[in-house]
Each structure stands twice: as C-alpha cells, then as structure tokens.
Automatic annotation (TrEMBL):
It comes from Rhodoferax lacus. This is GNAT family N-acetyltransferase. GO terms for molecular function: transferase activity. SUPFAM superfamilies: Acyl-CoA N-acyltransferases (Nat). It comes from the Bacteria. Keywords: Transferase. Coiled coil: none annotated.
Amino acid sequence: MVDYVIRVHASPLEIDQEAWDGLLQTQSHATPFMRHAYLSALHASGSACADTGWEPRFVTLHDDAGLASAAVLYVKDHSMGEYVFDWAWANAYQQHRVPYYPKAVVAVPFTPVPGSRLLARDATARLTLVQAMVEASRQWNLSSLHLLFGAEEDVAACEQAGLMLRHTVQFHWNNSAEGYADFDSFLASLSQEKRKKIRQERRKVSDAGVTFRHAEGAAISQRDWDFFYSCYERTYLEHGNAPYLSPDFFQRMAHTMPENWLLFVAERDGRPIASSLIAIGSYPAMGGEPASATGLENVAYGRYWGALERVDCLHFEACYYQPLEWCIAKGYQRFEGGAQGEHKMARALLPVKTTSAHWIAHPEFSDAIARFLEREDTGTANYMDDLNARTPFRKEQA
C-alpha cells in the first residue's frame, strides 16, 4: 500500500510547472489544454477563478519520488462552460428543495476536448486520486463530482471507484492512413453529393471576394491577436452572452504557448473580416501503432471563431475547410471539431463517443440518475449507429 500525501491547491500557480508538465507528457492522451501554462492563464487572467464560479481546488498526490498524480478540480455554483449538460439534474434537485450547487468538476474550463484529466504515474496513483477527490467532495458537503471528457484510463479508474458513466458524441476528422496528398484527394474520397456541396460552399466564399491567410505560433502578430479577439467577442455578444475568456488570457497564450496556436484570417478588399483560432499539438498516439515515424500524433483542435461581416458559408470555410487543408498539407493525423454539431458529418468529421464520470452524494438521486443514464446510453448508442450508417464517404471508401 503506497502512502501518499494528498494536497489541495487554491491555484494552479501553487503547483510546480515542471513536475505537472512532466507528468502530463507521460499520459496516453495529453492535450495542450492540460498544460500548466494553459491552466495558469485561465486562472491568472480571471477567466476561470472563484469570481467566475470556477473555484480551483486542484488535488495532488505525492510520494517519496515526488508528484505521483494530479487533477484539475473546480468547485462550481453553476453548470456553464462544461458542455456535458446536467441542467435537468439541477432542476430535479431544485424541485425537491435539495441543493445541487456547489458541485465539483474535474474538467478544463470552457474546453470540451477529450484527454487526460487524471495525470498519474501509474494505475494505483490514478485510482487513489479518484478516491481522494470523492472523499474530499464528501467532506466539503458537495452534491456531486463530475469528470468530463476523460481519457480511457481515467474512465476506467472512475468506474473502478464506483462512479457512473455518461456518453456523449463529438465529431472528429481523421487523415487517411497514407495521408491525403491534398484537399482534392480528400474530396475524392467523399460521395459525389458531399463533394459537390463542399465545392459549392467554398465557391460562394471565393466569389464573394474573400481570401485567407494564416499565421502560426510566434508569427501571429499583436494586431492579429487583437483582431481575433474582436471577432471572438462579437460572436458571443451576438448570442447575448459575454465571452468566457478575457483578452488577457489570449495575451498569455501568445507569450507562454505560442507554438500551440494557428490563426486563420479572412480578408476582403484588403480588410480582415473574420478569423478562426485553432489549437495544435503533438503528443503520444492514442493506442495501437504510432501515427508517425516519431511516435507522436499531430492533432488540431477547432476552438474559436468570429466574423465582423456576414458572408454565406464563411463559417464553414474558416472553421473546417481552411483548417483541414492545412492539416493535410502539414501531415496532421486528426482534427477535432469540438462539441456537438451533426452538420460536421457533411464535412467528413465522423462521430466519436466521449465519456464523463459522475459521483452523486444523495443516495436517492444517485439511483434516479443511474436509471436515467441507462436509458440515455441506449439512446446514444442508437444515435451513433444511425450516424455511422450515414457515412459521407464513397461506398468503396466506407
């Protein structure tokens, strides 16, 4: 039995960056969003902190060799910015005059990207970490603990600890096994209907006089970052919400993680009119044989977009076709399009099951939610079957 020292941190800044990132690099499904710099920027910029309803209580386990496991845990008084929706659960609690908030969430704020959530040296440390967080949630009198978009080993540890599983669907694009030669060769793999639709959509953008340029890493200028934020902010305000992320957060990204960002800018008549920001990273391949000669898998993540002018199909061009064309040219293996969006299938982003894990303190509500999840899981499985039957690829490619 390993004797761990358990610590709870009120800020990611309290945790040694080298130790955290060193542990992250050993995980099977690392992403840029679990880097110490990313989490610290969320906190220091005021985007995810106690004032915005994301109170950090990061949990770490230590042994004689140092940091053995770690998790991003937030105590929350709302369910915004999570993308695994539990509004119905909260409403049921309210109807029975039982408090649902505060609750604990193990997730990267505002980031529905599957990946490692429980950074651990081994399976024992990972399971002990889950058990420690459940016990802490009890002691803090929280209604529940939710781990969102976890990696397979995270889910396995949660299931072993008695948490309930919930499945949702995202849409991801995968390069061909040999790597598409160019965008036209990718289009050639699709059904005639889908090829025609994509070409029509791209033509509408080009006929409107819109061209694109992209900048990567340190080549993204301060003017580009400022323009991007004006687009990002406009999109949120048009939907009646303030943006989750502050300008300071993106400034921190430009200075601490420039290598993880790719910006596309749409221009017309020499003026920028829209932009999309893509995260990029190279990490150990997920299972099976390595996806490249280096043993790393190159992945791009669709994250944010906005436009100052309306052009038909501009969203599809900025958020899908330009990034996919770039991924093909650069030999990237995968492009993750983010949460939800069945329309993404027409652009060859295929359904992928994602998993969250849930511990509910109240016994009666735990039983009720377990029955709900059983019914929902059947519906999700049927939905996946239906989606997979509607492949966008040519029959001989499917």
